[in-house]
Amino acid sequence: MIRLGVNIDHIATVRNARGEEFPSVIEAGLVAETNGADLITAHLREDRRHMRDSDIRLLRQTLKTQLNLEMAAIPEMVDFALEVRPDFVCLVPEKRHELTTEGGLNVLNNFEYIARITEQLQANDIKVSLFIDPDMEQITAASDANAYAIELHTGKYAASKQAYYNNDEYYKIKDMCELADSLELVVNAGHGLTYHNVKPIAKLPQMHELNIGFAIIAQSLFWGLPRAVSTMKQLMLEERG
Ligand code: PXP
Predict the structure, then answer these.
(1) Ligand 1 closest atom vs CA 192
(2) pLDDT per residue as tens digits for the range 205-216
(3) Which of the residues are catalytic?
(4) What is the pLDDT of residues 12-69, one digit of tens each?
(5) How far is the CA of 191 from the centre of ligand 1 (A)?
(6) Rg (the chain; Cα; Å)
(7) Which of 115, 168, 191, 224 has CB atoms 3.0–4.6 Å from 155's, for a disulfide?
(8) DSSP string, the chain
(9) Ligand 1 center to 153 CA (angstroms)
(10) Which residue of 70, 102, 157, 196 sits with most ligand 1 atoms within 8 Å of its CB, as the best mutation to test the pocket?
């Protein structure tokens, strides 16, 4: 069954906009869990623009499902992850030099470094996912780095105005799912997924998990978080069961 990771970063964005202690990211995580989220995803950025260290620590203590920590591949964050021990770490680019033109992590060009961090985290029972573009060389490098999973960057697919069956990005993702699966990588995806574009991605048979944030948090303004989460999960399950 395909899993939904709800990214709650933007609950913290709203909280920080007024320097208040609400809305609570902990409450958001718990509500998302009871309405169909299989895990909660949060990105602790170097600039702490939304999540704070204390948010991640509290989420670790209170969530009933699993915690997926998105973070840059830097020593400060590795130390933090080893202390807090999320179930998963998703390594993401934050600095220009870590970026490819499309926006995923450049595993190929930083191979030794990323492989070492991956090994260190996984030796401490934290499963590592690498956020990469749907690119054959990056996927092969992720496999060579012994990552547990990849998260395919769906931003270009999502930004396209074309229907998915006319969208080259969709077919790229489809092919790369097959490649990653053949290399025994767990295949996740995320970025830019919405109620309108999620179904074709959820339908891909190798797809294990989708991490979705902005669309769910934005829609929760109108529907409330319970319905925003459960409707997204329902759309995904209609394709896969
Ligand atoms: N996956 C990763 C690795 C991300 O960095 C993000 C954005 O923080 C997401 C998923 C969620 O993207 P969105 O907020 O567009 O749904």
Answers:
(1) 15
(2) 999 999 999 999
(3) 43, 70, 191
(4) 999 999 999 999 999 999 999 999 999 999 999 999 999 999 999 999 999 999 999 9
(5) 4
(6) 17
(7) 191
(8) --EEEEE-HHHHHHHHHTT-S-S-HHHHHHHHHHTT-SEEEEE--TT-SS--HHHHHHHHHH-SS-EEEEE-SSHHHHHHHHHH--SEEEE---SGGGB-SSSSB-TTTTHHHHHHHHHHHHTTT-EEEEEE-S-HHHHHHHHHTT-SEEEEE-HHHHH--S-GGG-HHHHHHHHHHHHHHHTT-EEEEESS--TTTHHHHHHSTTEEEEEE-HHHHHHHHHH-HHHHHHHHHHHHHHHH-
(9) 8
(10) 70
Question: What is the set of domains in the chain, with CATH numbers?
Answer: 3-240 (3.20.20.70)
CA dihedral 60, 232, 43, 31 (to 10 degrees): -30
CA of 124 to the centre of ligand 1 (A): 25
